[in-house]
Amino acid sequence: KRATSLLEPQIASKKVLIREDERGMVISLLGDTFFGPGDAQLLPETKEVLSQVALLILDMKNLMQMDNKIEIEGFADAGQINPSSPYYHRFPTNLDLASARSNNVVKYFWGSGIEPIRMYQGKAYAKFKSVSLGEFQPMEENISPEHRAYNRRVDIIILREEEGKW
Protein backbone atom coordinates (compact mmCIF):
# COMPACT_ATOMS: atom_id res chain seq x y z
CA LYS A 1 0.00 0.00 0.00
CA ARG A 2 2.82 2.37 0.86
CA ALA A 3 4.58 1.75 -2.48
CA THR A 4 1.36 2.38 -4.39
CA SER A 5 0.73 5.58 -2.44
CA LEU A 6 4.28 6.92 -2.96
CA LEU A 7 4.29 6.18 -6.68
CA GLU A 8 0.63 6.89 -7.51
CA PRO A 9 1.27 9.54 -10.24
CA GLN A 10 3.77 7.30 -12.06
CA ILE A 11 1.48 4.29 -11.77
CA ALA A 12 -1.43 6.29 -13.18
CA SER A 13 0.70 7.38 -16.15
CA LYS A 14 1.87 3.76 -16.72
CA LYS A 15 5.51 4.63 -16.09
CA VAL A 16 5.67 2.40 -13.01
CA LEU A 17 4.10 -0.99 -12.42
CA ILE A 18 3.89 -2.58 -8.98
CA ARG A 19 3.03 -6.23 -8.67
CA GLU A 20 3.68 -9.21 -6.47
CA ASP A 21 5.14 -12.49 -7.62
CA GLU A 22 6.65 -15.52 -5.93
CA ARG A 23 9.86 -13.59 -5.15
CA GLY A 24 8.26 -10.58 -3.50
CA MET A 25 7.21 -7.05 -4.45
CA VAL A 26 8.28 -6.01 -7.96
CA ILE A 27 8.49 -2.32 -8.84
CA SER A 28 9.08 -1.88 -12.59
CA LEU A 29 10.33 1.42 -14.02
CA LEU A 30 9.03 1.33 -17.59
CA GLY A 31 9.55 3.33 -20.73
CA ASP A 32 11.86 5.86 -22.25
CA THR A 33 11.29 8.34 -19.42
CA PHE A 34 13.79 6.42 -17.32
CA PHE A 35 16.43 5.32 -19.86
CA GLY A 36 17.20 6.54 -23.32
CA PRO A 37 17.91 4.08 -26.14
CA GLY A 38 21.43 2.70 -25.77
CA ASP A 39 22.13 4.52 -22.50
CA ALA A 40 22.24 3.63 -18.80
CA GLN A 41 22.30 7.17 -17.40
CA LEU A 42 19.71 7.80 -14.70
CA LEU A 43 17.47 10.54 -16.06
CA PRO A 44 15.95 13.17 -13.72
CA GLU A 45 12.60 11.36 -13.54
CA THR A 46 14.45 8.11 -12.79
CA LYS A 47 16.14 9.72 -9.80
CA GLU A 48 12.82 11.17 -8.61
CA VAL A 49 11.16 7.75 -8.63
CA LEU A 50 14.20 6.01 -7.13
CA SER A 51 14.16 8.55 -4.29
CA GLN A 52 10.57 7.52 -3.52
CA VAL A 53 11.51 3.82 -3.63
CA ALA A 54 14.51 4.54 -1.37
CA LEU A 55 12.12 6.12 1.16
CA LEU A 56 10.01 2.98 1.02
CA ILE A 57 13.03 0.73 1.61
CA LEU A 58 14.27 2.89 4.49
CA ASP A 59 10.79 2.96 6.05
CA MET A 60 10.60 -0.82 5.83
CA LYS A 61 13.88 -1.11 7.69
CA ASN A 62 13.50 1.68 10.24
CA LEU A 63 9.77 1.58 10.98
CA MET A 64 8.87 -2.02 10.27
CA GLN A 65 12.19 -3.73 11.20
CA MET A 66 12.31 -5.38 7.76
CA ASP A 67 15.76 -5.40 6.17
CA ASN A 68 14.86 -7.44 3.10
CA LYS A 69 17.28 -8.32 0.31
CA ILE A 70 16.77 -6.37 -2.89
CA GLU A 71 17.41 -7.57 -6.42
CA ILE A 72 17.73 -5.09 -9.26
CA GLU A 73 17.14 -6.50 -12.74
CA GLY A 74 18.25 -4.47 -15.75
CA PHE A 75 16.73 -4.89 -19.22
CA ALA A 76 17.23 -3.52 -22.72
CA ASP A 77 15.09 -3.54 -25.83
CA ALA A 78 15.94 -5.95 -28.65
CA GLY A 79 17.65 -3.34 -30.81
CA GLN A 80 21.40 -3.79 -31.00
CA ILE A 81 23.58 -0.76 -30.34
CA ASN A 82 25.04 0.46 -33.60
CA PRO A 83 28.86 0.29 -33.68
CA SER A 84 28.92 3.94 -34.79
CA SER A 85 26.92 4.99 -31.69
CA PRO A 86 28.78 6.93 -28.99
CA TYR A 87 27.48 4.33 -26.52
CA TYR A 88 28.89 1.30 -28.35
CA HIS A 89 32.34 1.38 -26.73
CA ARG A 90 30.70 1.28 -23.27
CA PHE A 91 27.87 -1.13 -24.10
CA PRO A 92 28.79 -3.43 -27.00
CA THR A 93 25.91 -5.79 -26.12
CA ASN A 94 22.47 -5.42 -24.57
CA LEU A 95 23.72 -7.52 -21.66
CA ASP A 96 26.34 -4.83 -20.91
CA LEU A 97 23.75 -2.08 -21.20
CA ALA A 98 21.22 -3.80 -18.93
CA SER A 99 23.97 -4.51 -16.40
CA ALA A 100 24.95 -0.83 -16.31
CA ARG A 101 21.30 0.13 -15.78
CA SER A 102 20.89 -2.20 -12.81
CA ASN A 103 24.28 -1.24 -11.34
CA ASN A 104 23.45 2.47 -11.59
CA VAL A 105 20.21 1.89 -9.67
CA VAL A 106 22.08 0.04 -6.91
CA LYS A 107 24.64 2.86 -6.68
CA TYR A 108 21.82 5.42 -6.49
CA PHE A 109 20.29 3.54 -3.57
CA TRP A 110 23.66 3.45 -1.80
CA GLY A 111 23.94 7.21 -2.29
CA SER A 112 20.43 7.59 -0.84
CA GLY A 113 21.55 6.18 2.50
CA ILE A 114 20.61 2.53 2.05
CA GLU A 115 23.43 0.40 3.43
CA PRO A 116 25.00 -2.09 0.99
CA ILE A 117 24.98 -4.78 3.68
CA ARG A 118 22.31 -6.14 5.96
CA MET A 119 22.43 -8.17 9.11
CA TYR A 120 20.71 -11.52 9.13
CA GLN A 121 20.93 -13.91 12.06
CA GLY A 122 23.95 -12.04 13.39
CA LYS A 123 25.96 -12.07 10.15
CA ALA A 124 26.57 -9.41 7.51
CA TYR A 125 25.34 -10.16 3.99
CA ALA A 126 25.04 -8.17 0.77
CA LYS A 127 21.69 -6.39 0.66
CA PHE A 128 21.63 -5.88 -3.12
CA LYS A 129 22.03 -8.15 -6.10
CA SER A 130 22.39 -6.63 -9.56
CA VAL A 131 21.25 -8.77 -12.48
CA SER A 132 21.38 -8.20 -16.24
CA LEU A 133 18.81 -9.87 -18.45
CA GLY A 134 19.65 -7.90 -21.60
CA GLU A 135 16.89 -8.03 -24.19
CA PHE A 136 15.50 -11.24 -22.77
CA GLN A 137 12.20 -11.42 -20.87
CA PRO A 138 10.65 -8.39 -22.59
CA MET A 139 7.39 -6.94 -21.26
CA GLU A 140 6.21 -6.19 -24.79
CA GLU A 141 7.05 -7.48 -28.25
CA ASN A 142 9.74 -5.32 -29.85
CA ILE A 143 7.50 -4.31 -32.75
CA SER A 144 7.20 -0.54 -32.24
CA PRO A 145 9.11 2.30 -30.58
CA GLU A 146 6.51 2.38 -27.79
CA HIS A 147 6.86 -1.35 -27.10
CA ARG A 148 10.66 -1.17 -27.20
CA ALA A 149 10.56 1.71 -24.71
CA TYR A 150 8.72 -0.51 -22.20
CA ASN A 151 11.47 -3.10 -22.53
CA ARG A 152 14.13 -0.57 -21.50
CA ARG A 153 13.39 -1.01 -17.85
CA VAL A 154 14.62 -1.85 -14.41
CA ASP A 155 12.75 -4.12 -12.02
CA ILE A 156 13.33 -3.54 -8.31
CA ILE A 157 12.40 -6.68 -6.38
CA ILE A 158 12.08 -6.45 -2.62
CA LEU A 159 12.50 -10.11 -1.82
CA ARG A 160 10.23 -11.87 0.61
CA GLU A 161 12.10 -13.10 3.70
CA GLU A 162 9.38 -15.31 5.08
CA GLU A 163 6.20 -16.52 3.47
CA GLY A 164 3.69 -13.70 3.59
CA LYS A 165 5.99 -11.22 5.39
CA TRP A 166 6.72 -7.83 3.84
Write up this protein.
There is one protein chain. The chain has 166 residues and is of the alpha+beta class. The protein is built from five helices and seven strands. It has a five-stranded mixed sheet. The chain has a two-stranded antiparallel ribbon with strand order 4-5. A hairpin with a 3-residue loop joins strand 1 (16-20) and strand 2 (24-29). The model has no long low-confidence stretch (mean pLDDT 90).
Q: How far is the first residue's CA from the last residue's CA?
A: 11 Å
Low-confidence stretches: none
H/E element string?
Answer: HHEEHEHEEEHE
Structural class: alpha+beta
Q: Bin the helical content.
A: 25-40%
Strand content: 15-25%
Task: Give the overall shape, derived from the CA principal axes.
Answer: globular
What is Rg? 16 Å
Assembly form of the protein: single chain
Question: What is the arithmetic mean of pLDDT?
Answer: 90
Comma- or semicolon-separated keywords:
5-stranded mixed β-sheet; two-stranded antiparallel sheet; 21% strand; 166 residues
Write the layout of secondary structure elements.
Blueprint: H1 2-6, H2 8-12, E1 16-20, E2 24-29, H3 44-64, E3 70-74, H4 94-111, E4 117-120, E5 123-126, E6 128-132, H5 145-151, E7 154-159
Parallel strand pairs: 3-6
Antiparallel strand pairs: 1-2, 2-7, 3-7, 4-5
